[in-house]
Amino acid sequence: MTRTVQQLLILTAWALLVIGVEWAIAVRPPHDDEYGKWLFASLLVTGMPWVFDSLPVLLIAFSLERRKRPRRFWITGIWSLIVACVAWVHLQPVFRPPAIDITEVRLRLQEFAYPRLFVLLIVLWIVLWLEKKLADRGLLN
After folding, report:
1. Predicted TM-score of the model (pTM)
2. Which end of the chain, C or N, has fewer beta carbons within 10 A?
3. Cβ neighbours for 106, distance < 8 A, ≥ 6 positions apart
């Protein structure tokens, strides 16, 4: 698999994630003759901030796919599972069927992003840095 194909797959996964989150939290207009126009406007107004807020995730994903070592794959895979579990526990009320206020969704995502995701990103950076140093010294086979 070439690097271009890998980046295209990462970009596609990111786009699907952004579209899924947007579709889950979008404010639906009432069904009438102009439903399509107002749905598009609603998706645009509520979605654009999410697209710009998720760009750092795309940049992180592009930076992680550069070095191809099996250990790095396992490190980032396990880290991704931990992030998904932490996000599921912290953001579970956001995805429940009864709709909650959009401001509450934004607050929960901001609370998740700074204290939790920030710490997890620092831990990932430290572990990948240690793996690189140990691999450069020949301590890892």
Report:
1. 0.57
2. C
3. none
